[in-house]
Design a protein that fits this description.
182 residues; alpha+beta; five-stranded antiparallel β-sheet; three-stranded antiparallel β-sheet; elongated
Length: 182
Amino acid sequence: MPVAALIREEVTIPENVNVELNGNNITVKSGGKQLEKTLNYNGIEFSTEGDVLVIQCSFPNKKQTAMVGTYKAHALNMIKGVTEGFDYKLAIKYAHFPMKVSVKSDVVVIDNFLGEKHPRTARVMPGVTVKVSGEQVVVSGVNKEFVGQTAANIEQATKVSGRDTRVFQDGIYIVEKAGKVL
């Protein structure tokens, strides 16, 4: 199999989005929203050509080829984040003990989960908003990684151990990620 002399991926930058490169730092801005990320991997270079962000590597090995694709995905997620944002929806399910979910500054507090006396907590990442309305929790923000991590923290806070999960299905579960129903 011949070795590629150059791997090159291009990301089209929309009109209302500004992408700035400073070494390995990429800053994406749009409508007052801003995301900054340091993407540093040996041999991979970033440049802009008009309204296109170019990610390339000369004489790449296997890992560098994979990282070029990963960095393209990061750039696309950053652009989507500042233009549209990301929303994760979680469902609150209980059959045995009614739980109360509330947000206090940067912590989600889950009271009366499985009848426990002490509340369970889940950390909210910076720049992420959590809204609780009835039996639904909506996690939203511009950084996909932080939104996903916050949703995972909430889901993990209600993980059941030591009980039969076929009987005790109480918890908070991710049911929709950015428009995709699970």
